[in-house]
Amino acid sequence: MDPIEFYKQQVNMTDWLKAIGAAGTEAMQAEDYEKRERLKVLNRVIGLPFDKPTQFSGQDIADNTPEFQEFMKEHGHELCAVRAIPYDASHQKLRMRGHTITKALEWYLDQHLDPALYRVDFVPHPSTHIWSTIFIVNKLGVFGEVTKGSHEQLTQGLYTDHAPITFAKHWTDDAWQLSEQADGLALYLDEAVGFLRVTDAAQQAELVRELQAEFAHEHLLGYFETVQSEEWGTWFIDYNRLLGKSYEDYVATIPTVSLNELSGQIGNKGVARGRVRIVPFDMVAAATVTGEEVLVCDMTTPQYVPLMQQAAAIVTDRGGILAHAAIVARELGKPCIVGTKYATTQLKEGQLVEVDAFRGLVRALEQ
Asked: What is the architecture, at CATH level 2, of domain 261-364?
């Protein structure tokens, strides 16, 4: 799958949820739209570092106010992610990343949005990434994935050179469990999660009052994303309370390799048996899958949603444990194993398999 073409087609998580008719999609959309407003509160109360945006109303931009002119003069050459965020969550959020602010402005103006309906966030965008993470903090511990590339590899599940490293730490553990060792990784995870430890009772109370925050073992609960760059160090780029709630019982497992079994990461727990149905990306439009079949593919994209809805289970070569596709599988209640590397080549079309998404294993029940 061509990464450039993939990202052209990719949609945000709430669009995935809309496609399957998931309950609570509107609330999830509103949560997503205001994530940096919550990060602002965390920054003010506990000093949490985040990718603080420069914000303008759509009308400020349309009127080319002196403040906006000064911003463009000083920062137009800098890289950014731009977010056109509607005041009414029933309207679509638009986004683009990785271009200069000047180019981002051109993109925004080309959308021809009603300036009265939107505010525009210009979010700093690092030119390089040391680490990127995506993780859940719940009452059981901290569980997620990390990569040395940009964080969209984790949210979208598409990586080209190196699979993400899974990490897990129960509150009773002394050290991180890692699917692969990497220099400096444990220290970075300690740093990132350390920002979420709130020992001061007054600060906890303020966050409960302002954000309806929840805590366990003095740590803020929820779904989080971070990036670390040479320019700015560690930044949090997402804090989602609703996703945290939906993963309140989640535990990531570090898979082990066994003979005659295919091992991967657990996208959603469950057990299912069925016949393998391998669907390449270029065949997805014409493919069908029944409830007695296991959908096997390189990775899922929005085009796979109808097949995901019908399949008994989902198994992929690539993808991540908290990528959008895995979250969708969880909403569908489908057993899901991602990141097996070899599912499309090791499994055979029509082969009877058992998908054990409690242990992260796919077993062939016949040769």
From this structure: 3-Layer(bba) Sandwich (3.50)
pLDDT tens by residue, 120-137 = 999 988 888 899 999 999
- The CA dihedral of 217, 220, 224, 225, to the nearest 10 degrees, is -90
pLDDT at 43: 98
Structural domain boundaries of the chain? 3-124, 131-246, 261-364
* Torsion sign across C-alpha atoms 236, 327, 242, 10: positive
Residue 345: phi and psi, rounded to 5, are -105, -30
Tokens (6 digits) for 23: 């309950």
Positive or negative, the Cα torsion across 198, 191, 340, 311?
positive
% of the chain at pLDDT higher than 70:
93
What is the value of pTM for the model shown?
A: 0.78
Distance CA 145, CA 133 (A): 6
Predicted pLDDT at 323:
84
* Res. 197: pLDDT tops 80: yes
CATH of 3-124, one of 1.10.3720, 3.40.50, 2.60.40, 3.30.950: 3.30.950
Choice among 205-214, 276-285, 316-325, 328-337 with the minimum mean pLDDT:
316-325
299: confidence class by pLDDT, cuts 50, 70, 90: confident
CA dist 289 → 82, 96, 269, 355, 362 (Å): 38, 34, 20, 16, 18
Contact in structure between 336 and 329 (CB atoms under 8 Å): yes
What is the Cα–Cα distance from 320 to 337, expressed in whole angstroms?
Answer: 9
Q: Which of 41-50, 145-154, 211-220 has the lowest mean pLDDT?
A: 145-154
Q: Could you tell me the sign of the dihedral formed by the alpha carbons of 309, 310, 312, 315, in that order?
A: negative
